[in-house]
Design brief:
2 copies of one chain form a homodimer. The first copy, chain A, is mostly helical. Chain A has helices at 14-27, 39-46, 50-62, 81-103, 108-126, 130-146, 151-163, 165-172, 177-193, 197-221; strands spanning 67-69, 73-75. The termini of chain A are far apart. The interface between A and B is medium-sized, with 32 and 32 residues. Chain A binds a DNA duplex (30 and 30 nucleotides) through helix 3.
Chain lengths: 223, 223
Amino acid sequence: MPPELNLRITPRTVQQETVDKLRLAILSGLFQPGSRLIESQLCAQLGISRPSLREALRSLEAERLIEIVPNRGPSIPALSWEVATAIYEVRELLEVEAAGRCASRISPAQLRELERSLSAFEEAASSKDSIAQVMTAADFYSIILANCGNPILEEVHRGLVARISFFRGRSMSLEGRAQSSLAEMREIFESIAAGDEKAARKASKQHVLRAKAAAKISMDSDI
Amino acid sequence: MPPELNLRITPRTVQQETVDKLRLAILSGLFQPGSRLIESQLCAQLGISRPSLREALRSLEAERLIEIVPNRGPSIPALSWEVATAIYEVRELLEVEAAGRCASRISPAQLRELERSLSAFEEAASSKDSIAQVMTAADFYSIILANCGNPILEEVHRGLVARISFFRGRSMSLEGRAQSSLAEMREIFESIAAGDEKAARKASKQHVLRAKAAAKISMDSDI
DNA sequence: GTCAACAGGATTGTCTGACATTCTTTCAAT
DNA sequence: ATTGAAAGAATGTCAGACAATCCTGTTGAC
């Protein structure tokens, strides 16, 4: 009898572990935007070889989480407000569509799940833990996206949101943003629960626009 | 001397060349869906080392152009009709938005460029060269996407369209599809030229829906 | 004949080490 | 202070190696 019952069918490779670790590090803001990543340092810190690391870096590059300039190596891209705006606009497009579809097709079980994640965010919103706020909020969206009936919508959305994680952590720290965010999310939830597609779209749109505005404020506030 | 002017020529690395070559090979249907790619074979054919190849493969994996299963290696994913439908739906979302924006912001110079690409497609449509048809049609869209004012919209769209290139080549071969496609594209062009945002959206939506229908037919026709 | 265990080859995952090329920084010379 | 050259650091790329895993065809048992 194996002491560790590992039912995982796909074995986790070094490359996958590395991508996950680095992605998490990037998303949680461990690296300064614009800073360079030195291969030899990362190899030592992660305890892996250069070829494995470089494979992982190529994956992250394709996700647009890092940039790799020939002969200069990988670095954390500095997100301009223009690009951030563009991302928010596409995010709006996708999220509105997802919320609308979700309203007319989510299952009761998943709806309960959505309610639970809203409660989790509510709790986080009362605290000052902005990391918990971002994570629980992300759960909320991901349930909506997972239930919109279009896996591609979900996939693209995840990729985009990852790239603006930088702003999300900061804007959540804004005075009152977490609470107003909670109100907006509750409205989205209520609309979905009521099966009101139109209302879900409207609430969702409102939410993204407010999030964008909050991100802009947090960006302008301190440079 | 304007500091914006970037004279830096980015040297092309082996990895970039490899990604481009493989992407082109995949998009032009050189590999059968579901077929496996053997690293040693590709290395020999491309004349590169395994580490370089593996980096390129990771990039393509992140683009979803290939799949890499641990211990089984890379393969060409077989696109299910479900996923294809999902992609067409998101493509519709993006393309409609892009066409609408394009209508109210494209420059005269770019509009002429768009007209030129439409003519190029017209010529290709008369021929039986389905590859030329797909390429010129792709040019047409890419001009629209490049002028919608949102680089992310463009980026995401490019990634999605690449994944359904399989269908596009086949559906263009369908009896009369190229000609009806031409008519639809001309309508899109006319709407944009007239600066009629609403009409551009409508025409664009129609076009994607018809393309999806054609893809479905070409898929059902022979399996 | 069908099915299961098995051996062997093929293929991938990963590492080490190496070297040329290309930045980047330092330091000296004008 | 500006320029230029040399030293140092980091990347791009390769070759070779080996264990772990997958695939295939054969053998053996029922």
